[in-house]
Amino acid sequence: xxxxxxxxxxxxxxxxxxxxxxxxxxxxxxxxxxxxxxxxxxxxxxxxxxxxxxxxxxxxxxxxxxxxxxxxxxxxxxxxxxxxxxxxxxxxxxxxxxxxxxxxxxxxxxxxxxxxxxxxxxxxxxxxxxxxxxxxxxxxxxxxxxxxxxxxxxxxxxxxxxxxxxxxxxxxxxxxxxxxxxxxxxxxxxxxxxxxxxxxxxxxxxxxxxxxxxxxxxxxxxxxxxxxxxxxxxxxxxxxxxxxxxxxxxxxxxxxxxxxxxxxxxxxxxxxxxxxxxxxxxxxxxxxxxxxxxxxxxxxxxxxxxxxxxxxxxxxxxxxxxxxxxxxxxxxxxxxxxxxxxxxxxxxxxxxxxxxxxxxxxxxxxxxxxxxxxxxxxxxxxxxx
Length: 385
Description:
By secondary structure, this protein is an all-alpha fold. The protein has one domain (90-384). 69% of the residues lie in helices and 0% in strands. It has 15 helices and no strands. The radius of gyration is 20 Å and the shape is globular. This is Ammonia monooxygenase.
């Protein structure tokens, strides 16, 4: 019997490494879990990874950190991974979590959300300005300030879309190690920086009232899961980063925005999913990266400062020109982490549709322009040799 769960589980191979691990020679390093590891090793590593994330999330909640389930799990898993603990998150679990988070985030869309669309085209235009500024300024920093080659500096400067960036960079002479370190460090710093800032901004942001949602009946659940599954499958094959979660989010947003479904999933599912998401984010670096992180840390920190400053300067223009709250703008214009920032938007009650749509637009802009710029830099580099 074919069920939504079997479709989700079948979208990807049964076992892959949790995130790309890059060795010094630019080759993929699968030291965390080898394909010939037995089922027990995989299950044990997964259980340890989830336990570490859960403990970190609970401690963060107890201490009172902002967005504790994400921030706590990311800190705990990153620390453990850098310490040499084997971190593993199977793709089937990741897909289920992304699917559920997408359905939950999309439930934040209401019929009156559609009336806000008129103010978004100008925001998208300034998003392109932000992308150009962040990439250009970070590129100049790495190229002129640290003497990196043009292709490595370009792919390291691109805000987010790590999977696409690594795939595109692998066809060039760019240094994949530097790119991975810069991008992963920026992601971790971005979440650590935004969490306390958004905790303050989110207090006065216009909130989506999820408490008013209707009870999830069997009929509503069937419609929501069927529509979300169709969106998740389309999103998966679109090859967009976070495509499964994005597809489920858009389907759920349409269903809730048109009042076909007026109920949302239990909030506890979102909290559990956020903890699992922390495993995925925290596993982007491991013990083999420790020396490289220290070596490239000055470049990573300055790249983060330059890129984030450019993003927030552009966001300030959006705030002055359009009737949008700073929390919405900060989440939408932050340079990277589509999945994490969409989940943060939902957890804070901030419009997730605005946030997700801007991150998708940013990825499309990157996908369209970067190959041409990389080709031009490749030709320029060849002519200079």
